[in-house]
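Human:
I keep going back and forth on a fold encoding question. Comparing notes only helps if you start from a blank page. Show me how you would write down a chain together with its backbone fold. Write it directly below this note and I will take it from there.

Assistant:
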Amino acid sequence: MSVLSQISLLSDAKYFDEKSSKFNELRENLDHRLVKKKLNAMKRLIAMMTLGRDVSSFFPDVVKNVIVDNMEVKKLVYMFLTHYAEDNQQLALLAINSLQQDLKSSNQRVRANALRAMSSIHIKVVIPIVMFALKSCVRDTSSYVRKAAACAIPKVWRTDSGRKAELVDMITELLSNSEPNVLGATMFAYSQVCPERLDLLHPHFRKICHLLADFDYFGQTVSLGVLTRYARTQFLSPFGKDGNDEIEDDGDFGDAPFYEDSDSDDSDDDDDDEDDEGKKNKKRKKQYIMDPDHRLLIRSATILLNSADASVIIGVCSLMFSIGPKHEARQCAPALARHLSNYREMQHVVLANISTMAAKRPAMFRQYVKMFFVYWDDPEFIRELKLDILAHLASDSTIGPILLELFSYVNHYDQKFVHTAIRTIGRCAMTIPDVAERCLHMLLRLVKNSEETVVAQAISVIRQLLQRNPQEHIAIIKRMAKFLFKVKIPMARTALVWIVGEYREMIPKVAPDCLRQLAQTFREEAVEVKLQILNLAVKLYLSNPRQTSLLFKYIMDLSKNDINFDLRDRARMVRVLFFKKKGGGGAGSNDEEELKSKAKMIMKRCFLWVKPPPETESPFQDRNSLVLGSMSHLMQHEVKDYQQLPEFPEIAPDASVREPPRSEYEDKMERRKKKANKKYSNVDDFYNSDSDDDSTSSSSDSDDSDSDSDSDSDSSSSDNDEDDTDNSSDDDDDSDSSDDDDDDDQHRVNGTAATAHKNKPKAADDDGDESSSSSSEDDSDSDDDDENNNTKKKKKQPAPATASTSNNLLNLLDDSEDYSQGGGATTNNPSSVDILSGLNFEDNFISAGGGESKGMSGFLGGGGAGGVGGLNKKQLHAAVRPSRVGSNGILLKESLGEGLQVRFSFVRQDSIYSKSMLVCELEFVSRNEVRDLHMSNVQATGVDIRPFDRIPVLHANQTNTAKMHIDFKGSERKLKFDICTTDRKYPVALTPTPGDLLRSNLVSVAEFESTRKKLTGMQESRFKISNYASTNKVATAVSSCVDVAVLGEADSSPGTFRMAATLRHDKEQQVLIVVEESKSGGGMDVTVNCDDMLFLGRLEDFLKKKLKK
């Protein structure tokens, strides 16, 4: 036995050997009393499960081992349990009791693993138990368990999204943690469950920024994405309108230079104007001052640039690129360049982000240009990205090494890569016009290459460069004309013929000779070359008819008889415009001549017009508008659940919301400080009284009287303060509350604005020594005391008269102004019993009579005026209730779908996308597990369709529904498509009936009769039905197969049923149906009126077929 095989037997790799895995032996080991045997059997089962084998038959044997105390066995049992719990729900419920017992274990890892396993069981029946466990684990003393609780919240939300409110409360509680591992997992739960709730992050924003460096890699990546979106909504843009930074940072550096004052003092008077202009310009630049929290976020993120994880680096770069100043975002470049030596998959992700950043800010990476040179072992997807980055980084300082490197790629073995390198040379030449001449000479050297594809690509790029400035490259144009008879590749010859025809005036002697030689080889040329030769003949005939008229006619004759129909059609079109018919004359010929002359002028403009130079675009330009680091950015298109970054606000939101919540100790110390300020405020008044007396003694008598009155009021107020101070207790909390209550009562007694204004100076004097921060906190304290005082006053004073409770309940149930619009007595104060009795589901939401509710109008989709349920009940017939479902059937049979069956039904409701769209509900049932159910290969000519959402997995014997939205444009076209899984395709076809193409339209009987009188003759059809006992049953049968609104009975014609609808794609097209007893006896007459006569015939045949059954 070799050494390697011996080593593999010692490791866990031996468990993946399927030959040694015997089912009977595994069952015996699972029931064995030794833990070692159980562990060995569990490892083999997990290995077989990893290899894709179905070992669900062992589920009962594995569940019994949940009670084993061994930690390794428990982990493997939990893993097996979560994988097969959905297919064995009854047996999985037996393990819940053991999991609940593990939640009470003293070992934190056992508790965390039990919660992880319980939350991974995606069964709705278990969710209440999981929620109870989550509530206890959120408050667990172990941070490891709290982290597991945070990770379990998104799993519960995916299983039961209706418990979002409870989960948000848990996230709010977890955000108050200070442990980095808990906070990082909570940020993930926040991003999954409630990313729109920014108010949850406000008080914890600064804490998250400070602890960001201590998160694990996954927590850092998620938190950076969340904080980027937060910053885009809470901070102003650091970018100017022109894209430049206009920032005045309030960081560690001063706002003004150190020697600014001395320089301004020594300046001369002559320089005052220049200084004023400089100050104005400086003031313009200081349009924006960065918020301190914005600065804190950037500083906390830049620390992570030293991380060893590439995903964290990309997250930081995305943040800096989206919300950071441009001069600070440059420090991301060395961090990204460091990860270019990572494995190739990570290189691809890093290079994709660098490509987008280099397209917008190429200066960031120009000093690292050599790191983007292609290595010999780089795969194709890495090479393409590197070439794109090199094209972005081309500048006057870097173009030299870039061109040399690109020219060396011509000898590469991959021809596709060589073509891309040649196109990159052309992109560099178009980016920097000064090197265009150099690039042209490099490309001309490639024309002599032995590889024909290289020559063709080089000529194509040369053509694009010549269009930029053809006047300076006449010699190159002549040289290209000579290559016309050496190059044999159709693509290259096409480009050369176009160059000769476009710049014919610069080579007047060479162009006719080229046409002569091309006419000799016209029969052997490719189709694309023949088309260009025909264009060349037309251009030369229009510009130089004397030398080229015979050649033009000769090529026209050859083209007219060519086997390619495109060439024949173009030749005949040109021939009609340029040649006269023989024997033409008369008055009509003059008009034809005028038309031909105008057409000839248009042809000259088309052929001889100067073509604009082409613009080269990056093959990855679709990424530029997507968020860096996202899956959509990597895939170059928006994937499911992608969210674009919000725009910066124009006005900065309130920054005080990010103040951390105050602790009880801080509130207590603040109240003590407030009490001390009030206690010693009289001492300041005592020392200030002397100066006040001196100032008042020199005033007039009237002033003295005023000052006496003021002093009396001051003395009385001071006496009151002294009394309050003397009567205060020793307890700080009691004294604080009593002082606050007295102050609040004093403010409440003052009923007018003038009296409150008089008390305002006293409050200012009392609080004059306090800081601004303490005053704001006192306000919050006083607000709490105000609520207590308000409660006391409410007990003393009676409340004003308000509306009755029943009216409030009525407003909650129905927001309409008139409750009893649908009939019945109206009461001013209806009781709660009367209100609830009117909310019968059948009466309010089904079209058959009874009360109505305006607030729920439009419940039944398809109503022509906002839904059947929201209209007057008198306009609906009480005996016929419309069906919610139209035509239905089996779309894919179980025998053809290999166990997968798909049923369809057209639901009579308006689509969320357009009222002209039908809603088709699909029901999927499978005997086996099916993954990735989706639509493909849709063949829908003239039909608009919104396909159903992908279904990731459909378990065995599970039912799942999905909805399609289709606009058939009023026709019964057959919609063909494939229902696909991961490895199968099932072609199906879906066809609507004429009844599905209608939309019910509720009108009055008078409107119905007036419209019916207009639809007569060819717009009316009538047939007789004899297999029904009454018109009621006929009307019920019609409403079941056609989406119509059955109108109420008219007194003049009892037993007659009127039904109205419109075409779903065109609401102006009316459809009216009348069911009545036959006047001749022996059956029922069905009359159909419709604006569209073709649809009328189809609808009549459909109704005859359905009603005769």
